Amino acid sequence: MKTLVLVFHPDLTASRANRRLTEEIEKQANVTVHRVYEAYPDEKIDVASEQRLLEKHDRIVLQFPFYWYSTPPLLKKWEDAVLSYGWAFGSMGDKLRGKELLIAVSTGAAKENYSSDGNFKYTVPELLRPLEVTSNLIGTTYLTPYILYGVNQQSDEQLEQSAKGYVAYALNPELEPFVVR
Question: For position 59, what pLDDT does the model report?
């Protein structure tokens, strides 16, 4: 299975967690890593190129840090441009139908903050619901998200374990997502 990892981080070199996850997954066979902010520093997305890239892969991973309980702005812009009517959805839009979609998100806050009793009152999967609905619309199989909680509190050793767990899950989503807690 060919996997495409679309990394949406505005400054990957300054990131500790997303940089490490990206470094680990790009070592794998049959994985293409696409750093979208680096590809489009002007945010002018080459829609045809992005669509060709998506068509060549069986599993699509959207990897990003949680921004205000949502996606980074370029990911939303990318969705609006690339997942177009007649290509990704609509009566003739079937190019992604049957592919798998995995969301890989990192949070600065600890997991206990993301619950009905926690500071944020919602779980991360609840906050990712718009991406799940998008998956339904475009006909992809929505996989259980990989959520890396509390990256600011993880030790280097924990981050290494998390990176290996991310790769294992991204390449074998039938496994339980491994996350260091």
Answer: 98
